[in-house]
Amino acid sequence: MGAPPFKLVLLGDSSVGKTSLVHRFTTEEFDPYTSNTIGAAFITKEYHSSTNPDKKVKFEIWDTAGQERYRSLTPMYYRNAKMALICYDLSNIPESFEKSKFWIDQLRINDTSSDSSEIKIRVVGTKGDLLPNKPTPRESLEAGTETSTEEDATNEELDAVNTYCLESNIPHFITSAKLGQGISELFTSIIDEIDESFWDLYNQNQLEQERIAKNGQSFGTIDFLNARFKKTETSKSCCS
Amino acid sequence: MEPENRESSSDSPSHDNEVEISKENTKSSPVSKVLLPEGKKRNPSYVGDPTTAVDMGNVSTMSMASNNVSPKMNVIPAQKRNIPRSIRSDQDSDVASEFQLSHSQNGDDDIVNNESSNVEENVEENDGDDADEDDEEDLHNILNDLIRHEPQALYTTASQSLAAQNVAPTSSNASTILDYNIFPYNESDSELSENSLISKYISVSKNDSNSVFHSKYKQVFVLSSAGKPIYSLNGSDGVIMGYMGLITTIVSTFEETKDHEEIKSITYDDCKIVIMNRSPLILVAITKIGYEKMQLRKAADVEADIDDQSILSRQLDTLYNYLLSMISKPMITKNFHNRMNYDLRKILTPLDFQNLDSIVMKITYGISIKEPISTEDTRNTAPDIGFGVFASELLDSALECVKLTNTTRTKLNSILLSSKKVKIPKPAEDGPSAYQTITDSIPFLKASAASDINGPTSPSATGSYGDDLLFAILLDANCKIMSAMKPKHHNLKNEDLKILLTLISNQQHLTRHTKSEEGILDLWIPICMPHFNCNGFLYAFVKTIFVKPEDLRKTSSPGIPTTIVLLSSSKNSFFHMQEVSKQIEFRINQKMPSFTSTLYQELSTTTISIFRDIHVPQIKHFIYKSRSSNQFVSSDIEEFSRGNGTTTMNILKLVYFYSTLHNTRATPIRNTDSSSSSGGSTGNGASNGNLLPAKSASESNGSSSNSTSTGRNKKLTYIKNFGRNGENIICFMLCSDKYEFYCLCDDRTITTQFLINHSLKIIKWCEKNRKRLFIDAGAVF
Ligand SMILES: Nc1nc2c(ncn2[C@@H]2O[C@H](COP(=O)(O)OP(=O)(O)O)[C@@H](O)[C@H]2O)c(=O)[nH]1
Ligand SMILES: [Mg+2]
Fold first, then answer.
1. Interchain contact, B448 vs A223, CB within 8 Å
2. Any CB–CB contact under 8 A between A215 and chain B?
């Protein structure tokens, strides 16, 4: 049986390394010559949790360009997205993280629905290999226990990011597309957080499909769900 | 290169058609004007009216000039020639640069034109009903007359120009990029290897060094009217900053003159400079390359070569068009509104600068070469070949299409049409839509809003996926067009399409990086098509698929990449376009296995081989342009360069030969039917070797005698280039109202008789295969 789709959007300043991150995730390669993204790219990739192969999703990823001139398009990308990865550049923390905060605010402003349906956010530091000290295991970062004393300035900046993420209750990851570090951890953690019911419903739906295909008829769950869908749609139409 | 060389002849370069009304005041004290302190003469008036008559001025000036100025004017008055190294008004500067070009650099191509007046008298009658053999006979006679009359006039001799530069011809047989004096160079350069020459003079370099910057043949700047640098082909900000003030000063100086005349071109030392004012932007191109200092000609124009553009200004048009495509005119205007100091770089991206570099390099050299970032950086040094981009620029934005059988092309067209029309299934029967509702019903997974635009549950579910689809294009691996679809009442101009294709070809490594279903990448690119709608954006869906017939599926062969481009009018239609692309892919790759294999086979050999396809191997390379469709094909570059130097060097040569050939004024082949009415001997046009005044020629011919396969209003050009290694390349052009044919061959292996014979053979072959070579209307809905 196929994997249920899971929409995800990458946001962040231009050149922080979003495309490289996705490229590493989908192809396990690092291409130092990737050119900038124009507009946006849509990539799909099936992936399963490294801890539980049954938890498998088809990631549908929007890699956006991040430039100001494409701003008007971004709502389309995060509409329907379950998750936003807000990327900033570890070799230029102050500037790129400032942009990240903008995106976080942007998502919260635009996400007017009830709290429970909020788009999930991850803050992702990229180019970890350029940090003066090697990428720290994410656990320590998440726990805000970054203790290294070398390169004080960078650490102070990182501390500020950590503090911000802790206060906003947003998980924070450090990755390097170049070295391939932290990326499978990131995506595994995304899958691990998805409730089992996600797959149950999907499978149930697939069975329903098969049954419809056999009977050439539709009733039961589908009708119910469609009716429900229409309700959702009208109630949310103001957001488009 | 030095001005003195120009004095050697009173032969006139053919600059008459670009003569503009000169301005006395600038002529009298040109230098002092330029040296005015920056800002002192700044014209502040454009703020309120950014698109004033500045642009328009030229047009009217031009037409006045071409009406009033006799072609005889092209004999340059001596006193004008004595004004070197100064900024002159357009008339003077064009004179100077043309002059310089034809006498010191690539010799005497322009003299061909002067020849033509003599030749004309001898021109055989060419009745429209002549059989092809007579055609050939005639052409051969004309060509021989032309050559016999004054042979050296047709040659760009290496020895002459070498003597002028005090450089001894090398005895070495190795072909170098300095052959044929394509580029200016110093004596000391003979020691340099090809790679060093290229990196010294040609490669793009954003280096901080002044000397690196100054040695480049080509410079291009884009700056704001206030003098803020936006783009530069070479040099860092530090290097170029000083020139920005100078340029704005020059521009505003000219703006202040009573006619608000726009400065068009300046010749300074060995440079030709063209400035284009598109307030709030200024675009500048500077070249030291001889073939770029020529005036642009539309060789086959029945309108007797009337055109007002220099090669450089057309290049700037292309760059400006790129900027408009990316950020649109309204956005530029908006951003500069009330803040002339705005920095446009804020809304441009590094990719835009890469694209601008690549466009400039390809339209200048046919190849894009960057300075390597580091020594182990081999990939960036691999030249990015763009001969097609160059040829398209040269041939008035003609498009290059893929050779395909008519059946296959028709089939592809119908695939585009039927994919557009695929209906959106009703939600209740549609699996994914029901699934959508499930995920939306799970609180954690639910997104901010249910899908209203994306995917199959759209409210417009009664329509088709392709409802917003305006244009669809299928491209082959080299970004040439295989098939296209358009609405009945709309067209995409080639100028717009060119930008889109450049954009896509520069992104191809992205879309092609994966060869499995997994990790497939679709692009969604907002792009303004300035000639289609300059105020709004279209959205381009771009996806590369791999044509792979069934028997190849099990192998590891990736198949042949084919790119689907769907232009939509709605920014929210991505998922619908994706659905259309899936339909196209299904129809190409799955629905009919026999079609898939046919397509695969045809795509495996899309190059046109003179050797294999036409069997006239003495012709080394050709370009054939169909004038009615404004499309061209060219033969395999490999066949031209085989066993003779690097691809880079050969492309540089091709660019040089074709530029010279195209921009040399052609010799008309007169048609007796019209000779009486046009009175060639009475008008200045004829004595100047111009084509007969076009109107009278075509009127008198009417539509009655239109049966020669090769068309009417023929012209030809013949240029012989002596290379240092004994290889003499003949450039030959033959055009009519139907086609333009350009070819190159080696003097040692072909006679004039065969040149004509083979050329006609190729022309006939192209004509016969036109359905394979060109796209007519494409699919229309
Ligand atoms: N050292 C290093 N460089 C990276 C890494 N990821 C991206 N880059 C470089 O950063 C630049 C911008 O990357 P890109 O993925 O295009 O950024 P985007 O604009 O956010 O998509 C490129 O030159 C990449 O090679 C990384 O993990 N390490
Ligand atoms: Mg990117």
1. no
2. no
